[in-house]
From TrEMBL:
Cross-referenced Gene3D superfamilies: 3.30.465.10, 3.40.462.20, Uridine Diphospho-n-acetylenolpyruvylglucosamine Reductase, domain 2 (3.30.43.10)
Coiled-coil region list: none
Keywords of this entry: Disulfide bond, FAD, Flavoprotein, Glycoprotein, Signal
InterPro entries: BBE, FAD-bd_PCMH-like_sf, FAD-bd_PCMH_sub1, FAD-bd_PCMH_sub2, Oxid_FAD_bind_N
FAD linked oxidase N-terminal domain span: 77-159
GO biological process: cannabinoid biosynthetic process
Family: Belongs to the oxygen-dependent FAD-linked oxidoreductase family.
The protein, known as: FAD-binding PCMH-type domain-containing protein
Organism: Arachis hypogaea
Signal peptide: 1-22
Annotated ranges, domain Berberine/berberine-like: 358-415
Cofactor: FAD
Superkingdom of origin organism: Eukaryota
Keyword Ion transport: no
Length: 470
């Protein structure tokens, strides 16, 4: 094979490195384990789990919150590392790279699509389960808990109780209310208004009478509690004890699917009729649609300030969620996923457009994914612009600087802008096909990737200057 430049050779080698590895390294994760031992990291073996360790399954399953990904066919990691020190993370990254393994980094396992613990290529999970200190810095005021009295209310209204009229009114006022008041709306076959107010009843009731009298809120609907208590109340926990916040296993085992939208204009009354109809047809008690009001501080942060771009101009964030507890029953899962796809497509005319924006934390692989091999910026833009708008291009530029070979990647990771030669697709095809006989290029891959990173390391060592960020 002839490449245009030595540098490109390295890039292509890097790209194909783990494709090659999937075929050649599946059976030798022993070498990966040896590699971990050789790194300078204190007692790493105490935090390394392979399928032969008796607690491998319990560690793996512990943070799989979405039981859609608990099935036998869900790809499993070769190794799970639960680091206690940064050196454990470093060792895992270095060895994964050397042995062509993908890395998945998992925290609470809340990811809707399981991308923090699933890969189609051989992989290792770095599970941050032991990283759970919370440090509150009083001096710089970086944490903000228990800010005095908080009021919470939750009122439900059926269709007969004018739910449609109330939602119309909510859409007009929710993003423009006092900045200490947020009213979340949850739709099923009825409407649930759930609010958090940083202040007392005496201030809230007049405020509601002025801006949203139709809801008919009275003092008796309100409960006064501390902010930290409200977090327990808001998730619908029946417990009054704050101890539930320390409980790490979810109370209900469940499988779920979520999607998201942003609204820039109110859904018209005729549009709401169709939503009621869809909920009636579904008949599943766990399906709901939630609307979080925007406005407030969100309006004051420019779109380009942080990667998260959905700021002013939005009335609310919409989440569509459906969960079911028939673990392992495909027909139930298919039916519920189909329903959520239906309501999402029904909502298209009312949602934001060009692009139809999406919320990253409600990860949704239906809106587009990366290829196993190279993915162009254009292709990744299909979903990238939905999550990040114009910040996507800037994120891709940062990615190209810090990880040009795209070692850290998953189904919806930010792509590197590094250009590849056309031979890339040809070789990728080869990997997808059966013919893996000719492995001569593998050595070349290894060598190329190693020298690329070695050069980078040496350069970093000899360069004491901090690189300029342009
Ligand atoms: C090895 O790790 C220890 C503690 O993590 C650190 O102090 C030491 O500098 C490291 N040595 C090398 C050669 O990296
Ligand atoms: C897993 O098993 C290996 C081999 O027996 C052992 O060295 C390692 O310490 C075990 N891991 C944990 C976390 O106990
Ligand atoms: C519903 O709205 C109508 C008119 O807007 C009003 O007369 C009626 O009392 C309301 N019903 C309830 C249950 O609030």
């Amino acid at each position: 094979m002839k490449y245009p430049s030595p540098y490109l050779t390295v890039v292509v080698i890097g790209l194909l490195f783990s494709l090659a590895s999937s075929a050649s390294h599946t059976h030798d994760h022993e070498h990966f384990l040896q590699c971990l031992q050789l790194q300078n990291s204190t007692s790493i073996s105490e935090v390394v789990y392979t399928p032969s360790n008796s607690s491998y399954s319990s560690i793996l399953h512990f943070s799989i919150q979405n039981h859609r990904f608990l099935s036998k066919t869900t790809p499993k990691p070769l190794v799970i590392v639960t680091p206690l020190h940064a050196s454990h993370v470093q060792a895992t990254i270095i060895c994964s790279q050397l042995h062509g393994l993908q890395i998945r980094t998992r925290s609470g396992g809340h990811d809707f699509e399981g991308v923090s613990y699933i890969s189609q290529l051989p992989f290792v999970i770095i599970d941050l389960i032991n990283y759970r200190n919370i440090e509150v810095d009083a001096e710089t005021r970086t944490a903000w808990v228990q800010a005095g009295a908080t009021i919470v209310f939750r009122v439900e209204r059926t269709l007969e109780q004018n739910a449609t009229i109330l939602i119309m009114k909510w859409q007009n006022v929710a993003s423009k209310l006092h900045e200490d008041l947020a009213i979340r709306l949850e739709l099923t076959t009825k409407a649930k208004f759930e609010a958090l107010f940083l202040g007392g009843k005496d201030k809230l009731i007049p405020l509601m009478q002025e801006r949203f009298p139709e809801l008919g809120l009275v003092k008796e609907d309100c409960t006064e509690m501390s902010w930290i208590e409200s977090t327990v109340y808001m998730v619908g926990s029946s417990s009054k004890s704050l101890q539930v916040l320390l409980q790490r296993t979810p109370s209900l085992p469940q499988s779920y699917k979520g999607k998201s939208d942003f609204l820039k204009h109110p859904i018209p009354e005729s549009g709401l009729e169709g939503i009621w109809q869809l909920f009636k047809e579904n008949g599943d008690k766990f399906a709901f649609m939630e609307l979080f009001p925007y406005g407030g501080i969100m309006d004051q942060i420019p779109q380009s300030k942080l990667p998260f771009p959905h700021r002013s101009g939005n009335l609310c964030l919409v989440g569509y969620l459906d969960s079911w507890d028939q673990h392992g029953r495909d027909e139930v899962a298919q039916k519920q996923i189909k329903w959520i796809t239906r309501i999402y497509s029904y909502m298209e005319p009312f949602a934001s457009n060009s692009p139809r924006a999406a919320y990253l934390n409600y990860r949704d692989l239906d809106i587009g994914v990366n290829n196993i091999g190279y993915t162009s910026y254009e292709q990744a833009s299909l979903w990238g612009l939905k999550y990040f708008k114009n910040n996507f291009n800037r994120l891709a530029n940062v990615k190209t600087k810090v990880d040009p070979l795209n070692f850290f990647r998953y189904k919806q990771s930010i792509p590197s802008l590094m250009k590849f030669c056309s031979c890339e697709n040809r070789v990728a095809e080869k990997f997808r096909g059966e013919e893996m006989q000719d492995n001569s290029y593998l050595d070349e891959f290894m060598e190329g990737t190693h020298s690329f990173y070695k050069n980078k390391r040496n350069k970093a060592k000899s360069n004491t200057q901090v690189p300029e960020d342009n």
